[in-house]
Fold:
Amino acid sequence: MTATDPSTFSKSEMMIVAAARELAGQRVCFVGVGLPNIAVNLAQRTVAPDLELVYEAGVFGARPARLPLSIGDPTIVTGATAATSMFELFAFYLQGGLIDVGFLGAAQIDRFGNINTTVIGDYDQPTTRLPGSGGACEIAINARQVFVIMRQSARSFVEEIDFRTSPGNLGGAEQSERIRREQGWLGRGPSVVVTDLGIYHFDETGEMRLDFLHPGATLDEARATIGWEVKVSSAVGRTPQPTDAELRLIREELDPGGAYTG
Amino acid sequence: MSTSKLASMADAVRDIVRDGDTVAIEGFTHLISFAAGHEIIRQGKRDLTLARMTPDLIYDQMIAAGVARKLVFSWLGNPGVGGLNAIRRRIEAKPAQLEIEEYSHFGMVARYTAGAARLPFFPLRSYFETDLPKANPLIREIESPYGDGTVYAVPPLRPDVTIIHAQRASAAGDTQVWGLLGCQKEAAFAAERVIVVVEEVVDEAVIRADPNRTIIPGLIVDAVVHEPLGAHPSYVQGAYDRDNRFYLDWDPISRDEDATRVWLRDWVYGVSGRAEYIAKLGPDRVATLTPGPAPSGSVDYGDYR
Structure:
């Protein structure tokens, strides 16, 4: 694959492009650790030039000149609108209700978009200890809606997550809406999951539904990597493939070292 | 005139950090005092409770070296790279070899805030419908005293010692930071004792010319340590970039107990202090980390005599 050959692109590139496009029309995005970081930076350079990037490290209105290597990279500070204490960021910007989209990654997700990033196995005797919440738990509760980006596998799309780090639609839309209303959450919950195979939205029951397959991906492949009988739209669309410009930005500007796409 | 609190790192750690202490070396990705962490390892401190939002490589190294019995944290990863392998191994061991107490980021910030303000708890709108309060019973649901619903409370965190790294401070400890501010202000005010490590010791007049940039006054500082490049391999805004190569290199090193021991021998026990560590790192490596300039405009505070 040459640097600018658009006829071939990787699954990771398609996933990042599809996730970035979801941000069209959004105003303020709280950027989670990992894949969300490259997706939002691509969005700011393409479909959402006015997108305000908020980083939990304490930055509002970041204009990163290079792809941040972590969510605490110095490039998110230089040229930003505001560098705040983390207290201000979480209390006033997030809990205060200014975040339109919280963009998260996940290790495990269930059909209702509940997320685990804490442990695989038992909490006290874990098989695999994962990073934990960071800010994800409060982002999921306080951001107006949540976008998720993650690669699909039977280990990650599971019937039952091992630990609920960040709430999604709980046990379904009815319960989720009631609890969110009773407890006064600002967030409506997850609205989209973008994977390396397709795009899922949540139906009226609060359950994930496959709406788009990426070029090259098949329904069988999608089903085989989900641990429950996934709902599929009656008219599954085909995600438009990445444009030359999107691929050039990823390969030459955002991730020339292949840290996210390699 | 305030008196000088300048001290060597060896003296500051010897006098201020005690076995069994709760120690917070704060700084969110930015301004992490690796120099202080390494000195704590060299002095063989024991049974520490280490608190940090993101334990980062410094606590992976300190826990690998055996200084801690407990970890209080909110995100356990090697930022941009993967896991913290030395810590993970100890948590995944059966039985576990490290006690943990886990929060979310806002929970940790709120704990320091409560500690600094001498509050019995801090309320926040987080943790609803998650397993975190089950994993950590110190996270508790409480009723609003005004009858308008429930929130979650976290307890105050008051470290025995907070250690922060900064761009500059006066000899008296008036400390200025720019770039990511993290929760160093809260963690310092919450602590019994405070060590400030700086790139540059400046005249008090420099501090007084720009008071908005001061995060903590010398009033709460016990020692000021001048340790240029003391935050490497993390970074200092405007002075040096994060040494991402080291963050990547640490992943395979930390996966292997022997490789970790060798690294600690060569880079911590085998050097007398930060100056020797930096000399060993070499000027070429340091040069690659130097950013171009992006100065702020200056502001005019006005002369009101």
Observations:
- Chain A has seven helices and 14 strands.
- The longest strand of chain A covers residues 231-238.
- Helices of chain A lie at 11-21, 35-45, 86-94, 136-142, 173-183, 219-224, 244-254.
